[in-house]
Amino acid sequence: MANATAAKASSIPPRFIRFMDAPGYLGMCRDEFNKTVRPNVSEFPIGKQGVAFDRIELDEWADAYIESKSIEKAANQDNNRPRSERQGDPKGGKPWRERRSLVSIKKVESGKSTKFSGVSDFEKALELVTGKKPSST
Questions:
Q1: Of the chain's two ends, which shows fewer C-beta atoms within 10 Å, N or C?
Q2: Is 35 helix (H, G, I), strand (E, B) or coil?
Q3: What pLDDT is attached to residue 68?
Q4: 122 found inside a domain
Q5: Are the C-beta atoms of 25 and 17 separated by less than 8 Å?
Q6: In what order do the strands lie in the sheet with 50-54?
Q7: Residue 54 has what DSSP assignment?
Q8: How many domains in the chain?
C-alpha cells in the first residue's frame, strides 16, 4: 500500500517550482524568464538560499501572456502551401503563369545564315588553338 501511495504522489506536479526549474517549466531560457516573467510573479524563499515560484501563478501568467501576444489567424489559412511559383487557380484556372517569351521577333527562314563571312568563327578559333599560321600567299 505504501508503494501505491508513493507512485500516486510522484505523479502530482509540485506546487512550488524552484528558480532553476521555472524557466524550463515555461519553455524559455533563464535570461528571458528574468526579463519577462520574474518581475510579474511572486517569489518566495525555500530553505536558506532557495527561491521558488507558485506553479499556479506561473500558469496564470502564461495564460495572460498567450492572450495578450497571440496573433489572430484566418479560419481557413493554409500554412503549408506549396512553395512553387507555378501555382494554379484552385477553381480550375490556368495552372501556369503566362510569360512572354524573350525570342527575337525578326522573321528568319529556317536554314539560312543571317551572317556571312569568308572564314567561319569556328575555323578562326581552330587556327588559334592548333597554332596553324595563315599563309602569306
A1: C
A2: helix
A3: 92
A4: no
A5: yes
A6: 16-18, 50-54, 43-46
A7: E
A8: 1
- pTM (2 d.p.): 0.48
**Residue 39 domain-assigned (yes or no):** yes
> How far is the C-alpha of 21 from the C-alpha of 35, rounded, in Å?
16
Q: Per the domain annotation, does 25 fall within a domain?
A: yes
**∠ Cα 34 63 10 (to 5°):** 80
CA angle 110, 117, 112 (to 5 degrees): 10
Closest C-alpha among 103, 121, 105 to residue 113: 121
Alpha carbon distance 56, 45 (integer Å): 17
Position 44 confidence tier, pLDDT thresholds 50, 70, 90: very high
Average pLDDT value for residue range 23-29: 96
- Alpha-helical (H) ranges within 11-54 are 22-26, 30-32
Query: Which pairs with CB-CB distance under 8 Å and at least 24 residues apart come from 12-17?
Result: 13/55, 14/55, 15/54, 15/55, 15/56, 16/46, 16/52, 16/53, 16/54, 16/55, 17/52, 17/53, 17/54, 17/55, 17/58
* Residue 32 belongs to a domain: yes
